[in-house]
Amino acid sequence: MSDFGNDLYTGRRGLDYVGRRKLWFLLSGILLAVCVAGLAVKGLNLGLEFRGGSEFRVSQIADPSSFETRAKQTVDTAAAKAGEQAGNVTVTKIGANSIRVQTEKLEEGPTQAVRNALGQEFKVGTDQVSSTFVGPSWGQSVSQQALRALLIFFVIVSVVLALYFRTWKMSAAAIIAMLHDMVITVGLYTLLGFEITPATMIGFLTVLAYSLYDTVVVFDKVKENVRSASHTGRQSFSQAANLAVNQTLVRSINTSMMSVLPVSVVLIVGLLVIGPGVLLDLSLVLLVGILVGAYSSVFIATPVLAMLREGEPGLRDQAKRAHRYQEARGGANFSGVLLSELGSHDTHSTMLDRAEPVPAGATSVSMPTARPASPAQERPAGGGRRPLHPNVTQGSGPRNQPRRTPRAKR
Which alpha helices (DSSP H) does 102-167 contain, by range? Predict the structure, then answer.
């Protein structure tokens, strides 16, 4: 893995993310279209907190076998005897011996009747059956606050990124990537039938922060590479940006995996042990969002940035200079062959600093030559030891001591 990361950083290998951006845009466009269609046809599976209704929890069940069928029949029968319809009944197992039953809004009489019926069916006392009612106004208030927080978040992020990177186009590319993540994450929730709860709304906002973090790391490296490329004229903007994505790829993978592992553990524990609840809802949306955000920071954010900036006059001139330079080197791609010859990043930066910018009308480019060595520093033709400096004599100690000249008598 370390050799692979080193090859990506030096340019010996890598994928052309920017050059193949049409392919990534096509794949994301298809996925976005499917998610939007799912939202339009199926709609969001809103939880009880958003649509309102009654909820019953039965704990300490001795025999939880066939709990779903038994609970639905019991609730429907008890509500009908009390003169009310339970509507759509949802039954979920929580842990090893507890269940959760959600219905439409029930009045006080039918609610008490359902509690008693559930207790008799599962052979538990009425104190082991709890009932709550949630009105839809609470869910509407949560939705409004979440949308307000989302708008404020986008505005602050746009301003901060535009000031930090000194261009609104980097800010726009980051916002596009975050919108991409949000639509796909919500769309996948709709297509897979996952329930939207207040914890899910919190997870959506958290996912945007993950996506933004990866994007800023890549953009910071893009900024550094583009500054060096504009000084030397050896790379176009797209080549410098693509190299930045490859250089930060291992870091993005490591960051995402270190986030995915604990979230996956929490999700598995929630599914197998704890059951439905806040912890399960939050871990599920985080897992989906982290994976989608890792994809967008590599395949969407930087290609969109290159598409927005390639048309600038200064960058078009830089691309022409880079093309002339690479043609003079036999068509070698700077992000591949040349970086392999230069070696480490420190050597690369040193040579870029000593190189002169390519003139606008130049047809060939020469590499910076090394500083000629002084005659005293040249090695003998036979490969022997380098001769000592004229003021240095060979001594018996561990270091060569400078020769002392006698002080002139006054």
Answer: 108-121, 136-165
Q: Any idea how long the chain is? A: 410
Range of the domain at 163: 2-45+138-309
Q: Is residue 253 part of a domain?
A: yes
Whether residues 40 and 155 share a domain: the answer is yes
pLDDT tens sequence across 6-53: 656 665 666 788 888 899 999 999 999 998 988 888 877 777 777 778
pLDDT tens, residue by residue, 352-363: 343 444 444 444
Could you give the CA distance from residue 34 to residue 43 in angstroms, rounded to a whole number? 13
Question: How far is Cα 323 from Cα 344, in angstroms, rounded to an integer?
Answer: 24
In this structure, the answer to whether residues 144 and 130 fall within a common structural domain is: no
Amino acid at residue number 306: A
CATH of the domain at 92: 3.30.70.260
The set of residues, in sequence order, having a beta carbon less than 8 Å from that of 159 and lying 6+ positions away, is 171
Q: Cα dist. 131→56, 103, 122, 135 in Å? A: 4, 11, 16, 14
Distances (CA, A) of 90 to 238, 321, 324: 53, 66, 68
Alpha carbons within 13 angstroms on the beta-carbon side of residue 8 total 20
Q: Please tell me whether residues 15 and 75 are part of one structural domain.
A: no
